[in-house]
Each structure stands twice: as C-alpha cells, then as structure tokens.
Amino acid sequence: MLSGNMKNRESIQESRFDYYNHEVSDIDLSDCEFPHVIEIYDFPREFRTEDLLRVFCSYQKKGFDIKWVDDTHALGVFSSPITARDALGSKHTMVKIRPLSQATRAAKAKARAYSELLQPAKERPETSAALARRLVISALGVRSKQSKTEREAELKKLQEARERKRLEAKQREDVWEGRDQSAV
C-alpha cells in the first residue's frame, strides 16, 4: 500500500537530448574506404543502366559496374582506384561525377549498406570451350574434328591456367600469413 501522507509532488525531468532538433550526422566515408567507387549524378531521369554504361564504355573492358541510388544518382564501381581516378579526370556532357567522399548522404548510405557488393569489378576469367565441345560431341554421339595436336595444346593451356590459379592462391595466402615472398 502506498503511503498517503506523501505530498503531491510533481517533478518534471528535463530531457538530455533535443529530439525535435536532431540532425543526422553526415556519413563519413574516407577516400581510402571505397577508392574504386564514384558517384554519378545530375543525369536525366529517363536514363537507364545501358545509357550510363554507354557513357563509361571505355572502362567496361577494364571492369565497370553500375549500382543505382535513385533516379538521378548512381554509383560507378571500377576495377581499381587508378581507373576510378582516371574516370574522375574525364569530362562527360550528360552526367556529372565526383568521388564517393563528396557524394550525397543517400549515395554514401547505399555504399555503406551494400559494401560487399561494391568490391572492385573483376574481369571474366579466361575460359575454354573444351568441356562444352566434349559434352556436345558425347551427347550427339559424333567424332571430334579437332586434331590431336589441337587437343593437346588446349589441354596444356588448361593445365597452365590451373597452375597459375594455384600459384596466385598460394601467393595470396602467403601475403595474408605474412610469409616471405622473396623465397618463392
């Protein structure tokens, strides 16, 4: 039971935070966090991905991808910071570009939210038609018109690619583990 002899005291506690005038601080993305990503902005709302890819067509072979932020903002993901810096130095008539560190709050938020998708664009690995040819020939039950020397050359090329891939993986692991590279 509550004691009834307490005086009717009202106490108003002041808030420590001003919720009415709260401002969200700008997302701080340093140039070193996503140096291979730029913001593409101020282009017509009618632009589609193909239009932006056409603007940056000279970078597609080196590795370039588009991630949309909104109707007039997109992120350009390059294969390396050097390529992104090169793109920042070029002038485009239909779009404006700037580094991600100077981008809008929405673009920075998108970059932060999708950081794993913004890894540098990689070139497609070297491929061979040997497996496809072998599958088609065996499914149709016909003989291959490829000569023995051509098959051997293709097999040698595949073995070299496997060895190169294994060596690159070993070098990556050595760097990660801090092993001496000069001993290789």
From TrEMBL:
InterPro entries: Nucleotide-bd_a/b_plait_sf (IPR012677), R3HC1/R3HCL (IPR039884). Residues 164-184 are annotated as: Disordered. PANTHER family: COILED-COIL DOMAIN-CONTAINING PROTEIN R3HCC1L (PTHR21678:SF7), GROWTH INHIBITION AND DIFFERENTIATION RELATED PROTEIN 88 (PTHR21678). This is R3H domain and coiled-coil containing 1 like.
